[in-house]
Amino acid sequence: MGALRLEAAHRKLLHELADAIGTSLEVPVEITDARLRSLARSELVPVEGHARSLRPDLSPRVRIPSGHREPIHVPGVEAIGLQGFWVVPIFGVDRLRVLLWVLDGDADRSAVEFAATAAHATVHGLDAAHAFEAASRESGLGAAPFDDRIGEVERAVAGATSEGDFQYDSVSIALAVLVEPASAHFATAHDLAATLGRTAQRGAKVLPARRVLAAQHEHEAVVLLAPFPQDPPSEVLERAVAIVQDLLYRSQDAGLYGRWTIGTSAVVRHPEGPARAIWQARNAARTGLRIGMSGQVVEWQRAERLHGLPQLPQRFIDDHYLTPELVAFFDDPENEDLTATLESFLEHAGNVQAVAAERFVHRTNVYHRLRRIETALSVDLGRGHDRLALHMALIAWRMRRDGSGEHVAPAGMHRALSG
């Protein structure tokens, strides 16, 4: 069974159900789909000696026998600090829909079975109302666009096309949203998924339904667009980006925010165009978020030369491109103007006049700053090797950000990636 996708109202209902059951049993409770992707998370105050809530991605994989409907108890292992828990398969009309996870506490088997009755009734009602199937159809591509194997994405798009859900001529474009939740916000996977789900679906309203496919999975969302021949692709993409940006900014106002970046593809005309457009948009977003472009739009045409960096471990990048002396120089607040001048100089290929215009200073001032940089770092900015090493070091330094997103790319790097 694939990951379930529900409308926000249905997710809220399951969230409230988990909370009610947890309150009744006085232990943390979780409801997930059969692949352990979170649908609802209890917000209970921690019980003495118990975790705040279950983490399905860390829980042991429990094999549910076909048709099995009874609670399964998984005993704790004191030696490794693993608490015991119950896992209860919850069926809809005719199939397994969700799993109910109950942490061991004072709840015995009879109490768990009684609580499961309410869960069965709720899920059965949702299933009878076609809540699961309707939401699955709405997603269009499900989780397929988030597979890094482009062949899998191509097959999913081909399936949607053959079923009449998607139609395109020779042009495809896409945008992707990547979110890195802030620790104090997007407190639950439910909140994050709901916000991204709304974002993807609203962004998809730029064109008629069969010209757009939208999907959301965990912390990513994509919108695939197939403009009509008479519609300029750039204008269609611009409208979609504007809608997505507006929704993300409004989510921030509501207190649901984190670090986010929007990636956009080029106009793709290959036979495998739709899948290639999705791949480009996702990698543009990854690159932008990795180098600190929070709240920005990153174009694939500009990010292509850097898109491999997000795949590398930060330690590898640091070891190859940064030295303690460079880190100390870039980190020093007193060198902020020198660092910005250096970055502008490298982006403009050594054009001092362009640097002066961008930094709003006289050329003499730029030359003075460059000499100070050469002296402080023992480099020669007239040598190509030194310029390349410094440029890579600056990019690596921008990637050394903490989870709060304190470091953001300056104007020069924004220009380099967003045109």
Description:
This protein is α+β, with helices and mostly antiparallel strands and 419 residues long. The protein has 3 domains: 8-135, 2-Layer Sandwich (Beta-Lactamase); 139-310, 2-Layer Sandwich (Alpha-Beta Plaits), CATH 3.30.70.270; 312-418, Arc Repressor Mutant, subunit A (Orthogonal Bundle). The protein is built from 15 helices and 10 strands. The strands form 2 sheets. It has a 5-stranded antiparallel β-sheet. A 5-stranded mixed β-sheet has the order 7-8-6-9-10. A hairpin with a 2-residue loop joins strand 7 and strand 8. Helix 5 (189-203) runs antiparallel to helix 6 (233-253).
Produce the secondary structure layout:
Layout (H helix, E strand, L loop, with lengths): L7 H18 L3 E5 L4 E4 L30 E3 L10 E7 L4 E8 L5 H20 L2 H8 L11 H13 L10 E9 L7 H15 L8 E6 L2 E6 L7 H21 L4 E7 L8 H18 L6 E3 H4 L10 H8 L2 H8 L4 H12 L4 H8 L3 H15 L6 H16 L11 H8 L1
Parallel strand pairs: 9-10
Antiparallel strand pairs: 1-2, 1-5, 3-4, 4-5, 6-8, 6-9, 7-8
Helix pairs in contact: 1-2, 1-5, 4-7, 5-6, 9-14, 11-12, 11-13, 12-13
Keywords:
single chain; disordered C terminus; 419 residues; five-stranded antiparallel beta sheet; Beta-Lactamase; 46% helix; globular; alpha+beta
